[in-house]
Design a protein that fits this description.
The protein has helices at 15-25, 58-66, 97-107, 128-138; strands at 2-10, 30-37, 43-51, 70-76, 81-92, 111-115, 119-126, 143-148, 152-155. It has 4 helices and 9 strands. The chain is an alpha+beta fold and 159 residues long. The two termini are 25 Å apart.
Length: 159
Amino acid sequence: MKHTLSVLVENKPGVLTRVAGLFARRGFNIESLAVGQSEDPRLSRITITIDGAERPIDQVMKQLHKLINVVKIRNLQPSGMVAEELMLVKVNAEGEKRAEVLQVAEVFKAKIVDVDRRTVVLRVVGSTQKLEAFLELLKPLGVLEIVRTGIIAIARGKG
């Protein structure tokens, strides 16, 4: 079972290292990690996706609470969150392939962010499943490079 944790931390040097280190010491593999400033410039929000099937997540959450710079932790439930991922993909778009690349981009509502004679860079946002389906269609055309943000998530509703 995948868990998505939203961890609000003080925006100070070394906090991310301590948080990630705690997962490593407990034997958890972090599948996705995204960090950015929150609504308060003194705080950052870390979104961590892990596979919690092998080990219970409760123990790690208790230990996270003990870290001095951690302000708040939420284990977001799939039905109670909005989660998305951003991906940039550089694709071979020489000759006749360009029209196919643009067609796939249109279907997935991807934005063209850079074009040259041989390549196109596309930006697509959505669920991990959407991004994987997008890549499957582009692979035969020649995917040259991929960059992904990892999942970012926010709780639905108020609070």
